[in-house]
UniProtKB/TrEMBL annotation:
Signal peptide: none annotated. It holds the Pfam family Abhydrolase_11. This is KANL3/Tex30 alpha/beta hydrolase-like domain-containing protein. Residues 28-192 form the KANL3/Tex30 alpha/beta hydrolase-like domain. It comes from the Bacteria. SUPFAM superfamilies: alpha/beta-Hydrolases.
Amino acid sequence: MNRRVIDIDTPTGPARAHVTRPPRAVGTLVLGHGAGGGIGASDLAAIADAVPLAGWAVVLVEMPWRVAGKKVATPPKTLDAGWLPIVASLMSGRGKLPRPLVVGGRSAGARVACRTAQEVGADGVLCLSFPLHPPGKPEKSRASELRLPLEAGLPLHVVQGARDPFGTPDDVRAELPDPSYVTAAAGTHSFGKHPTDVTAAVLAWLAGAF
């Protein structure tokens, strides 16, 4: 297993990509973190350990605001502006990663992936703990963002905590054309300390969709 860290320049500052690449990788999964945490989140760390064993390269991206030591994420447009060149860099040049390319992330990272999936040329989108709405404010829905990959004809899957205050699995299913797009996992917005059900759902979807 080859592991490396790549510094990537973006218009919003330097980003950092943590790449785990197995021999003869069959595809690439690029994941961003949430607005209040980094790539050490239990679900991201578990995926980075498990998914390469199934033959996929996994990249956990530290966004520029996080690399700069800030505690709060930048606005959505700034996040998107940073994400685009990160994915472009990973998928080009001498060390480019293999397709299919699945982009995604947890929480705010999932929103970025949905908004930019078509522009980066993604082949699919994986959302972990998609923040469908702020807690207690279902009227402020972000469902239109979640549906963007489907409108572009891309495979989409959402893994959502059963008690997520940002939207339960049933809340998310209600906004999508097919309930099979959503897998329920134990826990809340951060899942659990050992999210084996999350990694199982991700592995099953990757195997079935690609």
